[in-house]
Specification:
The chain is built from 14 helices and three strands. The protein is mainly α and about 375 residues long. InterPro entries: DNA_brk_join_enz, Integrase-like_cat_sf, Integrase_catalytic, Integrase_recombinase_N, Tyrosine_recombinase_XerCD.
């Protein structure tokens, strides 16, 4: 079980000059029954873990970093955090002292490195704010703190009009370029052939089933089941621990078997063959990429696609577009032939309001409709 005491001691146990309450009572008045910060954080992380292990790891990383900062640098605990302390933290992580980039920053974990580099202002700090907002919202809703100090934090994207200016799916011409690059991957030697086959396999699985990053790295062929009618389904435990069953069409079925046969493991069976495999075996077995490894693979492939583009704007966009765009692209394409209710089931959405974002007017169609519109 997670325990904060194994990471860093609370301020009142560190000889801090600040007067800090232990927030400990025999009968806690908060709704989660937390006796101290350790209990509060553990309960929050347990809740975060119900979404996915990737979410749990990200939330734990950011909350631990923040906790070490307020305990060691500010000498306060969660109940004492105010907006000015959050601003101080955001400034701190953008200008980290050298000692925080090395082992030794965490007293009870001498080998732990909290940061590899300072956090860049923009999307990276926005992601930190998102985690802290979720954390303090949880504490506030359950009356562990009085109010949510993150409520007034301004994300970089909110300094302008709300709404993202980044299109999160591939336009048709961009998608044609990506598929062309996929078809022309180098296969001049055995390693290149293996690398190209692995890339085509992962792309086929991720696009055909519109999988999230955490879903493709945490599932394997052991999650493929027969549907009772001669076909196959992938049973996916997705976001919010919602279960959905995705049909594997003939094209994807053959792609999976082709790659499996190439590695000598035979056709689809109830085994742990990963949906996003590593190239190197570990202890004579083929294991799955981590989420970080998947992102590294994706960035490498997108860089190759960018290099092959003659369009500087397209090359720049390909270098920046995330793996999740593959899911957005798949759902955008499926929206052209699926009803919104069916697409919501396929995507694993609770609400069709989420699914509705994929039913957008095509740029080509809008251009045609507005061609003669004007004064």
């Amino acid at each position: 079980m997670f325990t904060l005491k194994n990471i860093v001691s609370p301020p009142h146990q560190m000889g801090s000059a600040a007067v800090v309450s232990k927030h400990y009572s025999q009968e806690p008045s908060n709704l989660i029954g937390a006796r101290d910060d350790n209990d509060a954080l553990a309960l929050f992380l347990n809740k975060a873990g119900t979404r996915s292990m990737e979410t749990r790891r990200r939330y734990e990383r950011e909350t631990i970093r923040f906790t070490v900062f307020i305990y060691q640098v500010l000498g306060i605990d969660y109940k004492s955090v105010r907006l000015k302390h959050l601003h101080a933290y955001l400034d701190f992580i953008q200008n980290l002292p050298e000692c925080w980039l090395k082992p030794g920053a965490v007293p009870n974990r001498p080998n732990k490195i909290l940061f590899n580099a300072s956090i860049k202002q923009g999307k990276s700090t926005d992601q930190v704010i998102d985690v802290l907002s979720a954390f303090f919202n949880f504490l506030d809703k359950n009356r562990y703190t009085q109010g949510n100090p993150t409520a007034s934090l301004v994300r970089s994207g909110e300094k302008m009009a709300k709404g993202s200016t980044v299109v999160r799916y591939f336009y048709d011409k961009e998608w044609i370029h990506v598929k062309k690059c996929l078809d022309t991957l180098p296969i001049g030697n055995p390693r290149q052939l293996m690398k190209a086959s692995r890339t085509r396999y992962i792309m086929a699985v991720a696009y055909s089933l519109a999988l999230r990053e955490s879903e493709i790295t945490s599932h394997s062929c052991s999650d493929i089941q027969t549907d009772g009618e001669g076909g196959f389904l992938l049973s996916v435990l997705g976001k919010g621990r919602k279960r959905r069953h995705l049909p594997i069409n003939r094209s994807l079925f053959e792609r999976i078997n082709t790659f499996r046969n190439m590695l000598g493991v035979g056709i689809i069976s109830d085994d742990a063959f990963p949906l996003a495999p590593r190239l190197r075996k570990q202890e004579y077995s083929i294991t799955s990429l981590s989420s970080r490894g998947l992102r590294f693979w994706w960035q490498s492939f997108m860089s190759d696609c960018a290099y092959q583009s003659q369009d500087p704007m397209l090359a720049k966009r390909l270098k920046e577009i995330p793996f999740h765009s593959l899911r957005h692209t798949a759902l955008t394409h499926l929206a052209r032939k699926m009803d919104i209710e069916d697409l919501a089931i396929f995507a694993g959405h609770d609400s069709i309001n989420t699914t509705s974002q994929y039913y957008h007017a095509e740029v080509k169609r809008l251009r045609s409709l507005t061609a003669d519109h004007g004064l």
